[in-house]
Design goal:
The chain is an alpha/beta fold. It has three domains: 3-178, 3-Layer(aba) Sandwich (Rossmann fold); 214-378, P-loop containing nucleotide triphosphate hydrolases (Rossmann fold, 3-Layer(aba) Sandwich), CATH 3.40.50; 383-435. The chain is built from 16 helices and 13 strands. The chain has helices spanning 9-19, 39-51, 76-88, 102-112, 119-130, 134-148, 174-178, 181-211, 227-235, 278-283, 285-292, 308-322, 343-347, 367-379, 394-403, 425-435, and strands spanning 22-30, 56-65, 93-96, 115-118, 216-221, 252-257, 263-268, 296-302, 331-336, 357-358, 383-390, 405-411, 416-423. Strands 6-7-5-8-9-10 form a six-stranded mixed sheet, with helices on both faces. Helix 4 (102-112) links the parallel strand 3 and strand 4. It starts with 8 loop residues before the first helix and ends with a helix.
Length: 436
Amino acid sequence: MTDAKKPNGDGRREQAVAAHTRTLVVCPYLARDAAARTPEARREEAMGLAGAIDLNIVGSQIATLAEIRPATYLGKGKVEEIGLRVQAEEVTLVVMDCALSPVQQRNLEKAFSAKVIDRTGLILEIFGRRARTAEGAMQVELAHLEYQKSRLVRSWTHLERQRGGFGFLGGPGETQIETDRRLIQERMIRIARDLEQVKKTRALHRQSRKEVPFPIVALVGYTNAGKSTLFNRLTRADVMAADMLFATLDPTMRAIRLPHGGTVILSDTVGFISDLPTLLISAFRATLEEVLAADVILHVRDISHVDAEAQASDVEAILADLGVERADEKLIEVWNKVDRLDAERRAALPTGPSKPVAVSALTGEAIDELKAAIEARLAEGRRTIDLDLDGADGRAVHWLYEHAEVMSRRDDEDGRVHMTVRAAPDTMERILRRFA
């Protein structure tokens, strides 16, 4: 286990509190939405979200709705039914897999005599646990304050924790809730100002990378699609990769070599999820700007998942909001976890020049093909040139290997070196100036 995976003292206290929090996961879905994603798969995802912060899940329940009730989201009969179950099973926390208004949340808490959090609150709690960098913590706190401005949680102090997360299960965060809205707003302004500075710093870093220059390849995809495992496979790094939702929150970047020697910077980003709250998209825009600045975007999909198509649609919708369309020339679809497919489904995978790249990040299957696909996509718009060099000029040869893709090399007996290199237009200008 790496240091990133080891819970510290505060993390262990959080886990201990969560382990004693008897939780019921309620999944209320409109009947008309069942075609987009199966209720069972949505329940499994909701259970995964609750499990991601170590809650003691005592049960789950799907509630099919004809319409949403303004006061309680659920119908009166369903509220009474769940209330009886909460009492019978001594549930202290009800997770609602939907977005509740503050009024709906308060009314359900009164009806159930238990703490209630919705999907947004649960995701924010996970993000609060997972943020490792100062930037990540600021982004989550900003989203948390926006969410909590109109919500009351002060009556649930029996689940106190020392720190970590943002108080959806009680404990810290109550100071912020009890503080008047003016102080909360001032804090939000300060965080937004700090994040603006982070944004400027990122822009400077991107500019410095352009001057090197190394292309950026960004990994995006639904949470738990295997992005971090793929990142580790490509870079041989040790980024936290686990079979859990939102295992990665803070962006990580590493350099990798492509088949012909070119270097790219690979960026791993936070996973997307269905019904991702708008306030979270806004809070993480600084992080997601790495995607916009990328030369190639790898959309990593768990092709073995029963709702793979629906998950892909959710990711495409968020990318479209960021200005990246499905047909964007820098987008490559990567179908991950093919090792989980049976022979029949593997045989049905599409073939052809425009097909997605099917890989297994876990076993390493087709990773070389993925690198070649990245290289081919970057090669579009690049120029190729033949050079005749003095073999004694080792510095020049080394410079070409560092800054361009060496497609071929031939060493003559007279000491001359003939090289075919490929490079982006700005690098090609430097090559032409240096070797004219």
